[in-house]
Structure formats: C-alpha cells, structure tokens
Write a structure and sequence with these properties.
heterotrimer; A mainly alpha; B mainly alpha; C mainly alpha; A: mainly alpha; three-stranded antiparallel beta sheet; 6 helices; 3 strands; 12% strand; C: mainly alpha; 0% strand
Chain lengths: 165, 87, 105
C-alpha cells in the first residue's frame, strides 16, 4: 500500500516537472527550483487523481491507443466534412434522433474514451452516460444505424483496453 | 505570411460576431452557453495568431492557459445549469 | 523547401478557416440545441487543429512547435468533454429535440 503511494507520487512529480520544463523553456537554477517546488506542492495535493491503478501491460495499451488515435483522426476529419456539408446544403438533409444502447465496458477510462470517441465520430454525440447505458443523439438515421448495428467504435475501444495477454 | 495571418485573424473575428448572434438571441441558457464556448475556443486561435503577427512567443503560453480556463469555466457553468449550484 | 512549407501552411490554414466558418453558420442555421452542438463540437475542433497544424509547419521544429502540439492535444481532449457537459445539462433541463418537420426553436 505504502509502496504504491510512493510510486504514484514519484510518477506524478516526474510528469508535472517534465511538463514544467517543456512550458518554461529555461534551464537555469531559479526556474528549475521554482518548478520543483510547484510540482511538489501539486503532487502533495493531488497525487491520487492522476494515476489511479497500476496495471500490467501499460506500454502495449499506449501503443494500441496511439494507433487508435490515428484512426480516430481520419474519422474526425470525415465527421467535420459531413457536418459542414449538411450545414451548408440549402435544404439541410438532417434527420435527428435519440438512441440508447448498453455496453459491457466497466472501466472509467474506457468509458470516457468511448464517450469522447462517439462525440467525435460522424453524426453522433453522447448525451448521457449512466453506468453502462449510453444515450446518444444522432444527426442522421444512417449514423444511428451505424452505431447500433455495427458497433465499430465499441469493438475498437474494447480491443485497446483489454488486459495484456 | 504576416498578411495571411492578418486576414485569418479578421475572418476569425467575423465568425465570432456570427456566434455572438446566437449568444444574444438564442432561446434558453444552453444555446447561449454553447455559443459562448465556441467563441472561447476561437479566441485561443486568435491569441496564437496575435502572437505570430507581433512576433512574441509569450502569447502561446497565454493561449495554453486560456484553453484550460475556458474549459473549466464551461464545465462550471454547465454544472450550475444542471444542478442549480456549483458544489 | 521554404516555398513548399509555406504552401502547405496556406492550404492548412485555408481548410481550417473553412471549418471555422461552417461551425458558426451551423450554429445559426440549425433548428435546435442538439444539432447545434454537433456543428459547434466537430467543426471547431477540426478547424482549430488544422490552423494550429499550419502554424507548426510554418514554425519548423522548435520549442514553440511543441507547445502548439500540446495545444492541439488539449483542444482534442477538452472540446468534446465540454460539449458533452453542456449537452448533458440541456438533457437534464429537458430540452426537446427537434424532429423532421417540426418547428424551429
């Protein structure tokens, strides 16, 4: 227990200090000491927020997450083109509807990633997350069908965050 | 290049004016809040552009801080609308 | 080389500006709150990312470019979350979603 607390504090401190150096850009004594003091204070106040659980296979998850971000970027570009087309079209071809669906995912981070991904992919936006039940607003009926039947996003998110083999 | 940045800034300001229509007219507080959030996110880009036009890197730091402040302000307002109090 | 990077910068900033204009136009034209959230959330995120990417290419590989990259990452995480928070508030406040053939709000 105590060992884990020290591990969390050290990791948080290192991340915060690296971020400080990145943003300040000066490497003289004054700025480094000020950064260390500030990082220490923030670490003391909030070390239990940033790193919740220490699990195995973190590196693989990070790698898969990076690939997923690449796929998501293309999807987001498509989404923006789709919305821009529908907005600028003289007749506005939209048919909005609200759908709900259940997901077996249980982890907090996984659910957050899924909700944000749904918001960014074409034609859908997350309204409410209550436990495993998602309420989603879809701009067109095609987008709603995609989400309910194919479940591409959910499969991909599950694939990233499954535990290491 | 500076000319391009100036034009970009002017176009951004005109889109902010468009958003302002929704802030003033929009029925209900949620419509106003989402338009205000959009104005805030455009302001981030405007800060970066101002930094490049005047050649001052410090505007980037201001933009970073503004992004976080805008996010927290929006979250606080949304929570206030939802629950009637911040705490 | 410089000409190429400048051309890329102009292209990216122009594309970003297109999205930045489409967002507020949607905010004005679309009929109800939820559809406006679509326009605001997506067009803005992509427009900002493209304009900042143009600035990164204009800047080259420097310290400021890393800051701009962090700004893009922030925006990518924060904008959907903020949109989600507002939409949830509207859902709790019982904003009625617009159906096809309904009345503008």
């Amino acid at each position: 227990m105590d060992k884990e607390k020290v591990f969390r504090q050290c990791t948080t401190f290192c991340i915060l200090f690296a971020f400080w150096i990145l943003l300040s850009g000066y490497l003289d004594a004054f700025h480094l000491i000020a950064g260390a003091v500030c990082s220490a204070i923030v670490t003391f106040l909030s070390y239990d927020l940033m790193i919740t659980k220490h699990k195995r296979g973190g590196v693989f998850k990070l790698l898969r997450f990076t690939f997923y971000c690449g796929w998501l970027f293309i999807e987001i570009l498509r989404a923006a083109f789709d919305v821009a087309y529908r907005v600028l079209h003289p007749h506005m071809p939209i048919d909005p509807q609200i759908v709900t669906f259940e997901t077996p995912l249980s982890d907090d981070i996984t659910r957050t990633v899924l909700a944000n991904s749904i918001t960014l992919t074409p034609g859908t936006i997350t309204i409410d997350v209550d436990g495993g039940t998602y309420t989603v607003h879809a701009l067109t009926s095609a987008a709603a069908r995609d989400l309910m039947d194919d479940r591409t996003i959910e499969k991909r998110v599950t694939c990233i965050f499954q535990d290491a083999p | 290049m500076i000319d391009l940045f100036t034009i970009t800034g002017l176009v951004l300001i005109s889109t902010i004016v468009l958003c302002l229509y929704r802030v003033i007219v929009g029925p209900g507080s949620c419509n106003r809040l989402i338009a205000a959030n959009t104005i805030g996110t455009k302001t981030i880009i405007l800060l970066v552009i101002i930094g490049y036009i005047y050649g001052r890197g410090i505007f980037l730091d201001i933009a970073l801080a503004y992004a976080m402040i805008n996010f927290i302000a929006t979250l606080a307002m949304a929570k206030y609308l939802e629950k009637g109090s911040i705490c | 080389m410089i000409a190429l990077s400048n051309l890329l910068t102009v292209l990216l900033i122009g594309l970003g500006l297109f999205f930045m204009i489409a967002g507020p136009v949607g905010l004005i034209r679309l009929p109800d709150f939820y559809t406006r959230a679509h326009a605001s959330g997506k067009c803005d995120t992509v427009g900002q990312a493209l304009i900042l990417l143009g600035f990164i290419i204009y800047e080259g590989f420097t310290f400021d470019a890393i800051k701009l990259l962090f700004l893009i990452l922030f925006i990518y995480v924060l904008t959907p979350t903020a949109t989600y928070a507002i939409v949830r508030a509207a859902y709790v406040l019982k904003y009625v979603p617009w159906k096809r053939g309904g009345e503008r709000q």
